[in-house]
Design brief:
The complex is a heterodimer. Chain A is α/β, with parallel strands linked by helices. Helices cover 27% and strands 24% of the residues of chain A. Chain A has two domains: 6-185, Fe-S hydro-lyase, tartrate dehydratase beta-type, catalytic domain (fumarase, Alpha-Beta Barrel); 203-237, no CATH class. In chain A, the strands form two sheets. A five-stranded mixed beta barrel of chain A has the order 2-3-6-7-9. Chain A has a two-stranded antiparallel sheet with strand order 4-5. Classes of the chains: A alpha/beta, B alpha/beta. Chain A: GO terms for molecular function: hydro-lyase activity.
C-alpha cells in the first residue's frame, strides 16, 4: 500500500488551508467542532429559532453525527464513541446553513451528490470530509477531549442536540470533493460500474417487477443518478419512474 | 430432580455484560477475517479503510468504549433448554433483559437510537414498544439459558424480494448482485460485512432467518446442507467480484462471508431476504447454567440441528 497524504488542521480552519485539501487526503482536526443535523437545521432554518451560541465565533466545522454520550458525576458528559450519520439527507439545508453558520467543512457519512458540491459547496469554498469505514467510532471518540457545551438537549434529545466538542487530532477523515466539485466516491463508482455489465450477463431480471424499479445498477444511490453510460443486457426496458 | 431456578439478577447481570461485550469487543472470527482481507486487498483506499477499522477495534478494546457510535438497535436472542427455569418465569427474564438495555445504554454508554416512528419520542434508553426485539427458541435436554446480544444498525443493507421458482438460482444471484451493488455504494451498508440470506418461509420468516444468518453465525461456518453451502460460496464470490471494497471504493473485499438459511415456503414462491451485518459485527453470547455458572463464548450456536429440524 502506498502512502496517503496526511493533513493536520487547526479549527476554525482558514480558507487557505481548506483550499489546499486534495481528494483522498487523510485529515485530522484540532480545535472545536459542533454537531448539527436535521433537528438543528429544522429549528434554525425552518422555524427561525436563534442559534443558542455564536457559532461563527466558535467553529466552522459541522459534524453530521450524534454521540453516544452519558452524564458524568461532574455534571458534564462523557462521550464514548462518535461516528457520522448519512449526510445526503441534509442536502436541502446546506446552502442556508453555510449562510447562517459560516461552515467551511462538513464531516459526515457517505458524502453528497456531485451536484450538491458544484452548486452549493463550491460557491462557499467548502469541503466535505467523510469518516473512515463509518464504524471507527472508538478512534474518533478518542479525539474528543471534552464536551464544551450542549444545546437543545431537552428539546431535541441526545441524538439531535447541538454538541460542542473540544477535539485533538480527531480523525482520520477522507476528503471527498475537490475544488471543481468532483466526488471521490463517484470516481470510484464509475470504476465499479464499468465491471457491472459483465456480471449481469445471463442473470435475467425477476419475473415480478417492483413498481418504478430501475434496471440500471449503475445509478448513484443518492441524489441524481450518475450519467455514466452503461448498457445492461437481458433487461426489460425501463418503464415508469419519477427519476429523470 | 427438578432443575434449580436461574436467578433473575444473574440474567440481568449477564445481559448487561453482554451489551458491553457486543458493543466493545469485535468477535475474533470476524477480526481475523478482516486481517486477512487487509492483507489481500490490493486497492490503496480500501486497504486504508480496513486497516483503520482494525485499529478502531483495538482502540475500542483498549479504551473500553463502543467501536461505533451508532451502537445499533439492541436485540436479544434467547435459547432456553427445555428443563431451564428462571426465577419469576419468562416474564422475569424479559424484564431483566429490558432492564439490561436501559443499564447498558447508560453505563457503556450506548446511543439511544430508538424513537417512536411518528412522534419521534425518545425515551433515551433504547426501550420502547417492541424494543428491544427478543426472539426465543428452545432446545431439548438442557437446564441452561443462552443469551445472545446483537447490536445491529438499522438503516441500510437489508432488502426483501418475492422471487418465484422460475427465477431459479439465477434470480437469487441477480437479486444478491442488485442489492450488494446498490447498498455497497458509498459504503452505506458499512461493508465489508457478513451477509445473511434468508430463502423461503413466508415474508416474516424469510426476514428473520436472513437476519439470524447474518448475525448469529461465525465467519467460516458452512450450512450443513451441501446445496445451500455451495450457494453460500457462490454468492460470496459473486459479491467480491463486483470490484467494490469498503465505502464503495474500488476493491475486492465487499463480502467477508455469506451465510444462507432456508425455510420451507409456498410451492409457488421463493422469497429471499438479504441482510448485511455492520462491519462492526457486534454480537456476544453467554450460557447461564442452573447452578449459577456463566459461560461467555464467541459462537452463539443458534443454528442447531434441532433448530433446523425438518420433521416432527
Amino acid at each position: 500500500m502506498s502512502q496517503m497524504r496526511v493533513v493536520k488542521l487547526q479549527v476554525p480552519v482558514s480558507q487557505e488551508d481548506v483550499d489546499k485539501l486534495e481528494q483522498g487526503d487523510v485529515v485530522y482536526l484540532t480545535g472545536t467542532l459542533y454537531t448539527a443535523r436535521e433537528g438543528v437545521y429544522k429549528k434554525v432554518l425552518e422555524s427561525g429559532d436563534e442559534l443558542p451560541v455564536d457559532i461563527r465565533a466558535i467553529s466552522n466545522v459541522n459534524f453530521h453525527c450524534s454521540p453516544a454520550a452519558s452524564p458524568n458525576t461532574e455534571g458534564g458528559y462523557d462521550v464514548g464513541a462518535v461516528t457520522a450519520t448519512a449526510s445526503f439527507r441534509f442536502g436541502k439545508w446546506m446552502k442556508d446553513w453555510f449562510d447562517t453558520s459560516g461552515a467551511k467543512i462538513i464531516i459526515g457519512k457517505g458524502g453528497m451528490p456531485e451536484e450538491a458540491y458544484r452548486e452549493v459547496f463550491m460557491p462557499y469554498g467548502a469541503r466535505y470530509l467523510s469518516t473512515v469505514g463509518y464504524g471507527a467510532g472508538a478512534l474518533l471518540g478518542r479525539g474528543i477531549k471534552r464536551v464544551k457545551d450542549v444545546h437543545w438537549l431537552e428539546e431535541n434529545g441526545i441524538a439531535q442536540a447541538m454538541w460542542i466538542f473540544e477535539v485533538e487530532e480527531i480523525g482520520p477523515f477522507i476528503v471527498d470533493n475537490d475544488r471543481e466539485g468532483n466526488s471521490l466516491f463517484v470516481n470510484h463508482e464509475r470504476a465499479v460500474n464499468a465491471k457491472l455489465e459483465k456480471l449481469y450477463e445471463g442473470l435475467k431480471p425477476p419475473a415480478l417487477k417492483r413498481y418504478g424499479e430501475t434496471t440500471s445498477r449503475a445509478d448513484e444511490v443518492i441524489g441524481e443518478p450518475d450519467n455514466t453510460p452503461i448498457q445492461i443486457v437481458n433487461v426489460m426496458p425501463y418503464q415508469g419512474s419519477d427519476k429523470k | 430432580m427438578s432443575a434449580k431456578r436461574i436467578p433473575q439478577q444473574l440474567v440481568l447481570e449477564t445481559a448487561t455484560a453482554l451489551m458491553a461485550r457486543a458493543a466493545i469487543d469485535i468477535p475474533p472470527d470476524y477480526k481475523q477475517a478482516l486481517q486477512q482481507a487487509a492483507s489481500q486487498e490490493t486497492e490503496n483506499l480500501s486497504c486504508f479503510v480496513i486497516k483503520t477499522m482494525l485499529e478502531n477495534y483495538d482502540v475500542a478494546e483498549k479504551d473500553r468504549r463502543p467501536m461505533c457510535a451508532d451502537t445499533g438497535l439492541p436485540r436479544f436472542y434467547v435459547k432456553a433448554g427445555n428443563e431451564a427455569m428462571v426465577e419469576g418465569g419468562f416474564v422475569a427474564l424479559e424484564h431483566a433483559v429490558r432492564e439490561a438495555v436501559v443499564r447498558g445504554t447508560q453505563e457503556i454508554p450506548l446511543r439511544p437510537n430508538r424513537v417512536h416512528p411518528l412522534t419521534r419520542k425518545d425515551n433515551n434508553n433504547n426501550l420502547g414498544i417492541h424494543a428491544p426485539e427478543i426472539e426465543y427458541t428452545f432446545e431439548p435436554g438442557g437446564d441452561w439459558i443462552d443469551l445472545i446480544t446483537v447490536h445491529k444498525g438499522g438503516l441500510f443493507g437489508t432488502d426483501y424480494r418475492m422471487l418465484f421458482p422460475g427465477d431459479g438460482i439465477d434470480g437469487i444471484k441477480r437479486f444478491f448482485l442488485d442489492t450488494m451493488a446498490s447498498f455497497g455504494r458509498r459504503g452505506l451498508a458499512c461493508q465489508p460485512a457478513i451477509i445473511g440470506v434468508g430463502l423461503g418461509g413466508n415474508k416474516d420468516t424469510c426476514m428473520r432467518i436472513g437476519k439470524e444468518a447474518a448475525c448469529l453465525r461465525v465467519v467460516g461456518d458452512v450450512n450443513p446442507d451441501p446445496e445451500v453451502a455451495r450457494l453460500e460460496q457462490e454468492l460470496k464470490e459473486l459479491g467480491n467480484s463486483i470490484g467494490m471494497g469498503p465505502m464503495g471504493f474500488k476493491g475486492n473485499t465487499l463480502v467477508v462471508d455469506c451465510h444462507v438459511e432456508v425455510a420451507y415456503t409456498h410451492t409457488g414462491g421463493m422469497p429471499m431476504s438479504i441482510h448485511s451485518f455492520c462491519h462492526s459485527s457486534r454480537r456476544a453470547a453467554a450460557r447461564i447454567y442452573s447452578d449459577g455458572r456463566v459461560e461467555f463464548r464467541d459462537d452463539p450456536q443458534w443454528f442447531t440441528d434441532f433448530y433446523r429440524r425438518e420433521g416432527i
